Amino acid sequence: MNHVGIDVGGTKCHGVLVDELGAILAEVRYPTPHASELVALLESMFRELGGHATLGIGVPGLISHEGIVRASPNLKGAHNTPVGPALRSSLGISVHVENDATSAAFGEWQVGAARGAQNAVMVTLGTGIGGGIVMGNVLHRGAHGFAGEIGHMVVERNGIQCPCGLRGCWERYASGSALKHLSGGLSGEDVFKAFHAGDEAAGAVIDTYAEWIAIGLASLTNICDPEIIVIGGGVVESFAGDLTVVTNHLAKELYSSDARPHPRVVAASLGERAGAIGAALLVSHNT
Ligand SMILES: [Zn+2]
Q: What's the CA gap between 94 and 152, in Å, rounded?
C-alpha cells in the first residue's frame, strides 16, 4: 500500500507519496498558508498526490495525540488548531498528525541512517533543534505527545534568551542559526567556508560550536544510552561528512567516558525529505 505524508514547515508544505519502503513516487510543494487555511491546503495536497488510504502530517510545535496543534511558534495563527480531527472528518480516512522532528526521526529510523537500531536519538540542527528518541525499538512520544523537545534542554542558566520564553536553551548554542551568534554575525556558510580553507579563527568558532553540540549529545547519551545518534539539518552537510570534531568533544563530556561504548554519531541520510517520508510511514506502522 502507498502512503501520503506532508511535512508542514515554517515556509513551505512538502508532500510525498511513498511506497511501503519509503521510496518516493510523487512529490509536491506549496507555500505554508495562515493556520486558518492549512487544513484546506493539506486536503488539496492529499488529493493531488492521489488520495490514497492514509495521510500522515508533520507539524512543528506541540501536537496532541488526537492531532490538535496546541502551539506552534513558527506557524502563523496556529493555536489549538484541530488539524487531525478536521481532516479525518472531511476525508474519512486514517490521519496521523505528529511533531515534525518526531516524524523526521521516524523516517530516519525506518528507512534512513538509523535503520535497524534498537536505541537511537535523532537530532535536527536547524533554526532550532528538534529531536526524536527511540528506545527498546519504540519511538517515544511521552504522556501527551510532547517528548523529544531536546532543543529546550537548558544548558546555561541565565543564558541567551530563547523564543520559547526560557533562557539558555541548547538550541540557542548548537542549532544552525546559533553558529551566527558564536561567530559574531557571520553566516554559518561563511564560517564553514573559512574553516575548510584553513582559517584559524573560523576553526576556533567551529570547535566551540562542536563543543556545544557535544554538551547536548552527552546529556542525551547519559539519559538514553543510544547505540547511534543521527544528526540532520543543513549544518551537518557543512561538516562535509566528518563529525570527528563533535565526537572528540563528546568523548570528553560523557559520563564515565572510558568505561562505556560511545554511540556512533552519523549524518542523517534522508535530507529535507525525512519529515514527509516519516509522516507517511507513521500511519502504516501505527506506532
Ligand atoms: Zn527554548
A: 31
Q: What is the pLDDT of residue 287?
A: 44
> Residue 126 — very low, low, confident or very high, per pLDDT cuts 50/70/90?
confident
| Per-residue model confidence as pLDDT tens digits over 99-122 | 999 999 999 999 999 999 999 999
- Is the distance from CB of 23 to CB of 112 less than 8 angstroms? no
Residues within 5 A (CB) of ion ligand 1: 152, 162, 164, 166, 169
* CA–centroid distance, residue 129 to ligand 1 (Å): 9
Ligand 1 center to residue 64 CA distance, Å? 19
Residue 165 CA to ligand 1 center (angstroms) comes to 6
Domains of the chain: 3-104+273-285 (3.30.420.40), 116-269 (3.30.420.40)
